[in-house]
C-alpha cells in the first residue's frame, strides 16, 4: 500500500495511528516533531501522505508544512493536520501553509482510514 509519515509529540497518538494504518497495509514512518519529519524527508523518504500534529516542540506542524512544501518532491504530497484545536484561525493558517486537510484528534479508526484513502493517489 502507501507510505505514510506520522508526526506527533504524543507517543500514544503516534502508536495508535501507526497501528491502525499498519493493519490497513500501509508502511508507516513516525517522528515526534517537524524537525524529525524534515530529517526523514531530507534522507530520501517519499511518503504518499503525511499526517502532522500542529503543536509540537522544536518545529510545529505549520512550520513543517511550510518547509516540506519548499521541496519540489513534496510540493504536492497530501499533508493532513491532526489537531485537537478547534480554532478556525489555526485551520486557515494550516491551509495557507499548504495543508491538504484537517482531522480532529483523536480520529476514529474508520474516519482516519476513510480520509487517508481520499487523499492517497489512486493507483
Automatic annotation (TrEMBL):
GO terms for biological process: phosphorelay signal transduction system. Residues 3-120 form the Response regulatory domain. The lineage of its organism: Bacteria, Pseudomonadati, Pseudomonadota, Alphaproteobacteria, Acetobacterales. It comes from Acidisoma silvae. It comes from the Bacteria. InterPro entries: Bact_response_regulator (IPR050595), CheY-like_superfamily (IPR011006), Sig_transdc_resp-reg_receiver (IPR001789). This is Response regulator. The keyword Magnesium does not apply. Keywords: Phosphoprotein. The modification 4-aspartylphosphate is found at residue 53. PROSITE patterns: RESPONSE_REGULATORY. PANTHER family: CHEMOTAXIS TWO-COMPONENT RESPONSE REGULATOR (PTHR44591:SF25), STRESS RESPONSE REGULATOR PROTEIN 1 (PTHR44591). It holds the Pfam family Response_reg.
